[in-house]
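Example record

One chain of 128 residues, shown exactly as stored in the release files.
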Amino acid sequence: MCMRIKGGSTDSTEADVKIEDISVRAIIGIHPYERKKKQKLKITIEYTYDMTLAAESDNISAAVDYDGLAKTVAGIAEKSSYHLVETLVSEILKHVLSVKGIIRASVTVQKPAALKFARAVSVTALFP
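Predicted structure tokens for this chain:
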């Protein structure tokens, strides 16, 4: 996790949180061989939330639980069987944005085995 405190008003402090390279296996792809066997994917989530209450209370109930978020996102990916990485990215982003307190987010899904001549292909979606 990376956290950067943004100077805003004295009443609130925004934090940028990054969960990098959540490793999952999922059915994803357009080719018949991709539909038969799960492939390795890496997911990175970045989000911004107001951490003021969490920092003051030192209580997880006032924060965005990044452990729970990562596990939920991994579950979404592992249960999916989309043809396009773009669809998976969109579904994960919808979930991340539904988490109470998150005001901005981006999701990147990396598919390492997509091309033989490249390390990986990745798709990123962000809001706003």
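Notes: The longest helix spans residues 66-79.
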